[in-house]
Amino acid sequence: MARNFTPDALFGATVTGTDGDKIGKVDEVYLDNQTGQPEWVSVKTGLFGSNVSLIPLAEADVNGDTVTVPFDKAKVKDAPHHDPGAELSETDEADLYRYYGIADTSSTTSGTGTAGNHVETGRDATTTGTTGTAGLATDSATRSAGHDTSGPNTDDAMTRSKEELRVGTETREAGRARLRKYITSETVTRTVPVSHEEVVVTREPITEANRGDALSGGDLTEEEHEVVLTEERAVAAKETVPVERVQVGTQTVQGTETVEAQVREEHIELDADAGVKGDVKGERDKH
Question: Is 90 exceeded by the pLDDT of residue 231?
Answer without folding.
Answer: yes
